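Q&A log
Question type: sequence-to-structure
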Amino acid sequence: MNIPEIGENTQVKANLIFMLKTIGFVGSAVWLVADFKADVQTLENDVVRMKHEMELNSEFRIKWPRGEIGALPADATQDMNIEHLKGRVDKLDEHVDKLRHGANGYEK
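Response status: OK
Response body:
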């Protein structure tokens, strides 16, 4: 049987391998913890952003229907069309009343 020689080189080699494994393990652990911490920080930032957006959306949801924020251009056009049609309907009502009640206001 061949028995390896045990000497100063063998001991140093064994300690060097153990030290490299330990450094590798500690380095991997530090990297994993840093990566985990970055992921947690990203999630916390996302939660803060979502809360802020939710507050803005709630404010918009309440103020928009009241007209406190503004109106769409299409709403302004629609309002003008409604006002125009209201004026025409009022004139038509006057004509119908004149025809119904006569030109001097008395029925025929």
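Response note: Helices lie at 8-66, 73-101.
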